[in-house]
Write a structure and sequence with these properties.
It contains ten helices and 17 strands. It is of the alpha/beta class. The protein folds into two domains: 174 residues, Alpha-Beta Complex (Quinone Oxidoreductase, Chain A, domain 1), CATH 3.90.180.10; 132 residues, Rossmann fold. The strands form four sheets. Strands 3, 4, 5, 8, 9, 16 and 17 form a seven-stranded mixed β-sheet that branches. The longest helix is centred in the middle third of the chain and has 14 residues. The structure holds zinc ion (ZN) (2 copies). The site of one zinc ion has 9 residues, from loops.
């Protein structure tokens, strides 16, 4: 007997998220798939959506949750390559396939993108309907908690593909939130020689050490820049800003001819930048945004066991208690919060 209603966390506008019983969704289009959600995780973006005024847009009435994994229950008539019982992860960013960018291999720059769990219903629910094109199969050997990290990891892999850290190279990661920690873990797995992480919060600094950082520095301590330079032989080959405001610090820490990768997003950030440093020392400054054909490699990384979820997942809640998870994110006490339906 299939459920008729399900618990869901619904964005109500103006900083409000309500947990309520809503009807179980049904397949409406031939390319759609009905999923049972196995696990979801709370993203910093969810916290920004719920700020008043909002730090990120979302559609009132939408079920939030854009980082989730599920099991295929039913498929529309046009769906191929999936069967009931398949474990999948979901690429929540649905692109139009028609715009200039979609047609030239840059779907992450799509001009008419929408997102499951932000603008349309997502994974903070017991069931979800998603188009088959958004689904990627993942081995059932990967626990649901870890599979829920596929979306943030796919974004991180888009970034790592741009900087291509080689064995022995040094890396500085600024900020040890979930994204900074995933970068740290991927760079460690890729054989980085020296990994320096900067982080203010103690719980995140500890997570960085568990994630493969060789040294974790507090950027507020006097002498931080010199210490980081000393640790990287005078400047890191690659610096990642996982915060979104730290380009000036990244330019302090990168070696001559090195690469700076900007991942963190803060629409208010407008730091003064010493442009001459970029010119004089031939620094490559690269932006990276969401996933770009990087779900398949991210899934392979998760299946390989290279991601240490113990360093990332600090809290587990069910949908009824999702506000506890959000509060733990807001207080900085949580790194990653997993949300399960029951
Ligand atoms: Zn996210
Ligand atoms: Zn498009």
């Amino acid at each position: 007997m299939r459920d008729k209603t399900m618990p869901a966390a619904v964005f109500e506008g103006e900083g409000k998220l309500s947990v309520k019983e809503v009807p179980v969704p049904a397949i409406g289009q031939p390319d759609e798939v009905l999923l049972r959600v196995d696990a979801a995780s709370i993203c910093g973006t969810d916290v920004h959506i719920l700020e008043a005024p909002p730090g990120h847009p979302a559609t009132p009435g939408a079920i939030l949750g854009h980082e989730y994994t599920g099991t295929v229950l039913e498929m529309g008539s046009a769906v191929q390559g999936l069967k009931a019982g398949d474990r999948v992860v979901i690429d929540p960013n649905l692109t139009c396939g028609k715009c200039r960018y979609c047609r030239s291999g840059m779907p992450n720059m799509c001009q008419s993108m929408t997102t499951l769990g932000i603008f349309i219903n997502g994974g903070f629910a017991k069931y979800n309907v998603a188009p088959a094109s958004a689904l990627h199969k993942i081995s059932e050997d990967v626990p649901a908690d870890i599979a829920a990290l596929a979306e943030p990891l796919s974004c991180v892999v888009n970034g790592t593909q741009k900087v291509r850290v080689q064995p022995g190279e040094s890396v500085a990661v600024l900020g040890a939130g979930p994204i900074g920690l995933l970068f740290t873990q991927v760079f460690a797995a890729a054989g980085a020689g020296r990994i320096v992480v900067s982080e203010i919060a103690k719980v995140r600094a500890e997570a960085a050490a568990k994630s493969g950082a060789h040294v974790v520095l507090d950027p507020h301590e006097p002498g931080f820049v010199q210490h980081a330079l000393d640790e990287t032989g005078g400047g890191a080959d690659v610096v990642v800003d996982a915060v979104g405001t730290l380009l000036p610090t990244a330019l302090d820490l990168v070696r001559r001819g090195g690469k700076v990768l900007l991942f963190g997003m803060n629409q208010q950030a407008a730091p003064p930048v010493r442009q001459n440093t970029i010119t004089r020392y031939e620094i490559s400054v690269l932006g990276t945004y969401i996933a770009k054909y990087t779900f398949p490699p991210a899934i392979r990384v998760l299946e390989s066991g290279a991601v240490n979820a113990d360093a990332l997942i600090t809290h587990r809640v069910n949908i009824a208690n999702i506000h506890e998870g959000l509060d733990a994110m807001r207080s900085g006490e949580a790194v990653k919060v997993i949300v399960t339906p029951d």
